[in-house]
# Entry
Amino acid sequence: MLPLLTGIDRLIAEPKRYLPGMRVGLVVNQTSRTATGEYAIDAIRRLPDLQLKRLFAPEHGLYGVDQDMISVDDDVDPSTQLRVISLYGQEESSLAPRIEDLKDLDCLIFDIQDIGSRYYTFIYTMAYCMERCGEAGIPIIVCDRPNPINGVDVEGNRVGDAWRSFVGRYPIANRHGMTAGELARLFNKEFNIQCDLTVISMSQWKREHWFDQTGLAWTPPSPNMPTLSTATVYPGMCMLEGTNLSEGRGTTLPFEQIGAPFIDAHKLAKALQSLRLSEVYFRPHYFKPMFQKWSGQVCGGVQIHVMDRKRFAPLATGLGIIHVIRNLYESKFSWRTEAYEFVSDRLAIDLLYGNDQFRTRWIKEAFDLEAMRNSWREESDAFLELRKNHLLY
# Structure
């Protein structure tokens, strides 16, 4: 098999083919690396007759050092002394580039690793950049990268109109099975952005590939996404952010271990057997988060061991876990009520799920995973139909 080349590798190999002018801006973070490991910033700066004017950074900052939902100020890159425009500042308006920061550019290049779940904010940073480029009248180039949890499996419902947010701007499935480049094509046409978009596709990537089959080195896309195992469970375990349960932030196993001080680990592990999920093993476990929920307190819970990732359904599993814990500890379990990703008038669990049906209906009924999956089928089928015209691989 020939080596996989990402979009940024192909752009660097043939800059005159892809770049419409000399003055460029880069939307990048620590994942923006070539196949040889060089930062895209350095690789772009080495190109002859090119001016790298400024950098734009998503949530977590240029080098991914800031925790989730921590505002990031504009800065200067210590390596290049280039100005860094934050696309995750103090208020919602900061999520999009300012028109004045684009006017002296011939194009904007987006090159950031996504992880395959609609809650992950980088794809919406991309969409905001596409919108602003359209308004400013400059082209945007999206350098494609692999979906690390494969481009075949799709799971979940779509986001309802009343629950749009920075963790769900568009009606796509929770686990969308698309690359960032494919999503850019879908956003541009189906949701009427209509910017001057070029997607530079990868070579040698297959839809069924997981990240550990690409030959690329894993760079954590955010502080709490340290490994591919984390990304594998994330489409379901992120739902716990909408509760008072720890999703493992502040530990070395974010999203792979969950719990709270009021939980008996062994009792929970036994209760989770009722979900009858042979592809995952729930190990009774105790842990102490060093920050965020239940900081400094010992939490009882489970570590989630995925035994068969091909059969593993992360969203259904995560929702099943919440249902079991809520039934066991109804008086101590609660939904998150604090503002979430710049939204304070709707609950985080509803924003994450895409509507209020899990909170108002499913959590109150005897849990039936198959019935829940069936309830998604119409929306999932509609999404599959919508996305098929935008797939590149």
